[in-house]
Amino acid sequence: MNVLVCFKVVPDLDQLSGSDWVVDGCSRVETRFIKKMINPYDESALELALKLANPAKVSGITTNLSALTIADSGANLTLKNLRALGYQQAVRIESDAELDFAPQEIAILIAAYIRNANDFDLIIIGQQSGVGDNAKTPLLTAELMQWPCITQVTAIENDPAGNVKVTSLADEGTVTRVIKPPCVLAVGTPLPFPLCAYQPLKRSRNRPQYRLKPSAAQKLEKQHPTYRILRMLSCLNSK
Amino acid sequence: MNYKVVLNGCSPNFSNQCSSVSAFLISSNILDREAQTLIFYNNSAAKLKLTAETPTSLLHLIEINNYEAETVLSILAELEKPNPADLYLFPGDYAGSELAVRFAYRLGGSSLAAVESLQMDQHQIKCTKGVYNGYLQGTFKLSKKPYCLSLARGILPNRDSQVIEKREAVYSDRSEERQPAYIVKRTVEKAESLNELESAKFVVAGGRGIKNKDNYLKLQTSASLLGAALGVSRPVALNGWAPLNKLIGASGAIINPEICLALAVSGSPAFFGGIEKSRKIIAINTDPQTAIVNNADVAVIDDYKAVLDELTRLIGEDKNH
Prior knowledge:
The structure holds 2 protein chains of 2 kinds.
Chain A: E1 2-6, E2 9-11, E3 36-38, H1 40-58, E4 64-71, H2 76-85, E5 89-94, H3 103-117, E6 122-126, H4 137-145, E7 149-150, E8 153-158, E9 164-170, E10 173-179, E11 183-187, H5 195-198, E12 209-211, H6 216-221, E13 227-234
Parallel strand pairs in A: 1-4, 1-6, 4-5, 5-12, 6-11, 7-11
Antiparallel strand pairs in A: 2-3, 8-9, 9-10
Helix pairs in contact in A: 3-4
Chain B: E1 3-8, H1 14-28, E2 36-41, H2 47-50, E3 58-63, H3 69-80, E4 87-90, H4 94-106, E5 110-120, E6 125-131, E7 136-142, E8 147-151, E9 168-173, E10 183-189, H5 195-199, E11 202-206, H6 213-226, E12 229-232, H7 234-238, E13 259-263, H8 269-275, E14 280-285, H9 291-295, E15 298-301, H10 304-320
Parallel strand pairs in B: 1-2, 1-4, 2-3, 3-9, 4-8, 5-8, 11-12, 11-13, 13-14, 14-15
Antiparallel strand pairs in B: 5-6, 6-7
Helix pairs in contact in B: 3-4
């Protein structure tokens, strides 16, 4: 089974103090100087994929893991660490564009990559990330691919019959589905004990594989964004 | 600008969906007698009950076999595509947040999740929502109809709720619709929910500063002695000190107790959004500069353990007298 996990390296916004929250004329906040981390929802997605692959290896099922990010070269170290953790492919789509409020453009790039690779069974993505708080990327990726989507996923296991068992939270309780891939899985709940943080890293000899700029075809596929941000106000001391 | 509301009648939180959408409609001043609510339900015995609290007088109840997003989406797109409304409102629960985005895509419209407020005129709508982990509030202009909005979680019922004297309902039966082909087997287990936290009158919330699992367990005992429900912030759950169903905040419970005792919590917006509806917030923290101290109604600058020990001792004494 071929699994693609999409992730994003984000600023740890809790590190910003009150006076750092200055919104510039382009509705942005300067975050380049603070510590970066894997978006916690994406970290859970990366973790779930590792948990899926490790027992599969023991029972003789081959699970190939790929990690994909759309970022500038600042994400390279994370890609390298993911290679050391067991991701066979670590791919970066080169971009220095401001995509925090452009989930549709991100989904288009992810979908173009999936179509180009044409061999993924599962796509696992965090439900949302901190800056844009859009909560749209996995849903739009599923729509663009015309694949089903399961949200609020908390566990993924291999099923003996070659299917995948997916556990997720729903408004009516916990839903367990045995599914036939392909499918997009959105992870919306943090998992305790993220493996990425605790598993000792082996030095990766293999360089991460980087993809370069999105092709002209992908650019053509871009649609006009369906919304734009007008202004931002501070919520600090709102009570 | 006409609108429709889409609700999940299969969910036990149906009543909350109705009250949060009603409150949103009142605060946005967009009440319309011609508006319709579409309700997907799977228990025909309870369908009359579903019509009692709806936010509009015109209803369309659609019976389905069970709530699967793929099934609901295809029925909704089929029903609405020929003559879409300008605006669709979805509650901010799991189902509504998903449907709003995917339905907008299928109808070629625009969507926004976790919307807190809405302003609209004949030509455009502007919405506000939390961005940057809730540290900022962004105002967004949506450009393509139909506009599909899922509401922010934790919108409380409005005291000036509208009175709907008569409701008119039409029914459709789509219960014969097949389960989506990609699902081989499906089971639902009613899990231990966050409802205990969400309905509690007194909540003790522990943050990163409790430092370890042993302290969490001690906190559990203290909360029990105080008669409070216990919740935690994200770092406590992420470190595995507490189970996930104790999580308060953007990914967990949105609580509205009479009193929330926030212990060793930094008060990041993602967490604060979960407790801000509390009537009184009492923060206990060693750091006077931390955000929770600024946002609480009462702040005690001290080690939470010392304060909690004294509090439980006093309550114990009180009980003994």
